[in-house]
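Example record

One chain of 141 residues, shown exactly as stored in the release files.
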Amino acid sequence: MNKKHMVLAALMIFATVNLSQAQTFYPVLKKFSTAEKERVDKVYAAALSSGHNGLIESALAVVTKVKLDLPADKFPMIKNEIENLVADGGTPVIRSKALLASIVFANPAIFKKEAAHQYGDSNALFNALADRTTETILSSN
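Predicted structure tokens for this chain:
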């Protein structure tokens, strides 16, 4: 599957999730096989490197929640793309969300409370992550 097809597949996933009122904004992955998780790593890494700001922001929310849901899984391609976005994301919002995502990928244990919560949208997720990050930094001083 080439990069164009992977991005198209990711767009279709996002459209399905966003058009359904009954679902949360990300897929439930706890029951995915190793092969399915590897495919998720590949597809979402492609979405993060797509160059389309809306797709990147949506993908950041999904992969961050996925890491919270599956803290033991590494997702190396996604992690690499997040690190690239921290430095070179196309907008300040993308760079900020990528920074929060990178903190989650580096320290998922800090975010156990956030992992247990279901968020209605990505802004609520990133606000909760920012609050927890600030609380953790301030309490360590």
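Notes: Residues 122-139 form the longest helix (18 residues).
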